[in-house]
Amino acid sequence: MEKARILHLFTAAKNASPFDVNMAFDAGFAKVMPYTNVALSEVTGLTQDAIFSRGLSGVKLEGIFIGGRDIDLAMQMLDASKKAMFAPFACSVFADPSGAFTTAAAMIAKVEYHLKSQLDETLTGKVVSIFGATGPVGSCVGIIAAQQGAVVQLVAHKSVEEVEEKAKAWNEKYQINMVVVDGTTDEKKMDIISKTDIAICAAAAGVQVLSQVHLAHAKQLKIVADVNAVSPLGAEGVGVSDDGALIEGTKAYGIGAMAVGQLKYITQHQLLKQMMPSDQPFEKPKYLEFMAAFKLARELLKSHS
């Protein structure tokens, strides 16, 4: 009897994401098994239970997906799962907590694409201000953008100290230099946006962080990308389906949530398919996270341009 393709879904949350379950089935996995409330200390045991129970032919037909909401914990879980395996008992692992890695990857890939296509410029040296900077998408966008040479500002809308603590940890871990700016008042936010090249709106759904008044004063602004698809949108004047459309009353181009979401969907689908074995007899397992997602999102845009 042919063994089924199984995806083991580890999450620290109390529920597995239906989005991720649907994506896994649509990518071709025959079985998806969720494990909820998973602690970091349990990842090694769960991983080894998975890889040692099916033999060499079976282990090639399974993968591990890491969900949750915490990007740092997801990366730790991916590392723990990787270290728990050894050849030939090894399978691919893909971390995408709350879809943040693939969403952030798609967002920055879109920003980079429109900078080049509309303005013939790159991310290097551009001031990228992130609103909603401590959420899973915003923080991951910051890390990817900083690694591409952007000057990343994490905008604190409540506690500057809290954001600074997180930024310090990310800077040390990823060898980058993100800074924290105080956006706790509208006046301070206006000052930030006036010196911004690229604005990222990654706040909670239904929270507008940039109004037309803000955008009208942002003479330096080139791109506004919004991940919010729930009204009111994160940036006034940027429609959910905008994909490089000029924002009325400005010289900046808008990227809406649907444009980001379509690329995110394709990126996640393709990464899930990459976890499955090919015809190569000694194919190495893949360990996929936000940089793998960004690389693929870039390639997808280039292939369709």
UniProtKB/TrEMBL annotation:
Keywords, sorted A to Z: Oxidoreductase
Residues forming coiled coils: none
GO molecular function list: oxidoreductase activity
Alphabetized Pfam families for the sequence: Mpt_N
EC number: 1.5.1.-
Enzyme class: oxidoreductase
Every Methylene-tetrahydromethanopterin dehydrogenase N-terminal domain range: 18-98
SUPFAM superfamilies the record matches: Aminoacid dehydrogenase-like, N-terminal domain, NAD(P)-binding Rossmann-fold domains
Protein name: NAD(P)-dependent methylenetetrahydromethanopterin dehydrogenase
Organism from which the protein derives: mine drainage metagenome
